[in-house]
Amino acid sequence: MSAELKVIQGERTETLTEATARRFREQLAGRNITRRDVARAIGKSDPWIGRRAAGQLPFDTDELQAIENATGISAAYLLTGVNEESRRPVGPDGGSSGVVHPPGLEPGTH
């Protein structure tokens, strides 16, 4: 038995692997970077990057970090879809508002 994490965004339902691949493709297109350029920059083959860009195989965290180092595309963004630059701390402790933490996992106060 296998479990899949599904990402729900609007009407879109996709696995985390598919969502990461989609964001990767979107970021490459927006920056006019080819998959081949990325593959060469991180020492991988065209088929290797192609399978991951298609969502057929997942990127691992070391690979995402290598992509970030080579292209400037945030590994965190590729995984989560949260754009770090657009996050603005608004809470009194510098945290973002609207975040609900499960009981017992609230951030500490000073």
Topology:
Elements lengths: L5 E4 L2 E4 H16 L3 H7 L4 H8 L7 H11 L3 H6 L30
Antiparallel strand pairs: 1-2
Helix pairs in contact: 2-3
Describe the structure.
It contains five helices and two strands. By secondary structure, it is mainly α. The protein has a single domain (6-82), classed as Orthogonal Bundle (434 Repressor (Amino-terminal Domain)). Strands 1-2 form a two-stranded antiparallel sheet. A hairpin with a 2-residue loop joins β1 (6-9) and β2 (12-15). α2 crosses α3 (46-53). The longest helix is centred in the N-terminal third of the chain and has 16 residues, at 16-31. The model is unreliable at 88-94 (pLDDT under 50). It comes from Brevibacterium gallinarum. InterPro entries: Cro/C1-type_HTH, Lambda_DNA-bd_dom_sf. Residues 84-110 are annotated as: Disordered. This is Helix-turn-helix transcriptional regulator.
| CATH fold category name | 434 Repressor (Amino-terminal Domain)
Q: Identify the CATH homologous superfamily.
A: lambda repressor-like DNA-binding domains
Q: Note the gap between the termini.
A: 45 Å
Helix content: 40-55%
Characterize the biggest β-sheet. Answer: 2 strands, antiparallel
Query: Care to count the β-strands?
Result: 2
**Runs with pLDDT <50, length 5+?**
88-94
The residue-averaged pLDDT reads 81
Number of domains: 1
Brief overview, please?
This is Helix-turn-helix transcriptional regulator. The chain has helices at residues 16-31, 35-41, 46-53, 61-71, 75-80, and strands at residues 6-9, 12-15. It has a two-stranded antiparallel ribbon with strand order 1-2.
